[in-house]
Amino acid sequence: MCVSLCVSGASTPIKHLSLRSLLPDTEHFMTYEGSTTHPGCWETTVWIILNKPIYITKHELYVLRKVMQGSQEAPKAPLGNNARPLQPLHHRTIRTNINFQNSKSNNCPSMYKEMYYKANKWTHDVKDQPFHALQHSLH
Q: Which residue intervals define the domain Alpha-carbonic anhydrase in the entry (predicted)?
């Protein structure tokens, strides 16, 4: 992938940018259909939630907040702080490729409505906690 970085009108090519290297090493994720974070909030987005967090330092977060987006035709705007308020779930289906194996049984597991997904030391009940809270950008 060849990308150019523009700073103060000067353009510098970035010869190698591996998006994979920016993501945690996991093949497990959840997805749901939702909307864009900017007005008109169109229902055209598939949100992907990785099962491992991406850790950054406070300094990296500060630098990331300074990144601007836009083009020569459109005004520059901060890349971050574009999160919408928490939205109702609206009967959205959350899909996952995470294998919830039941080690005590040789039968195929069934999908339970109140299945828990646990990461680190916190647990969310899918029916009580919409995953829209996780779609917010850094702020």
A: 1-98
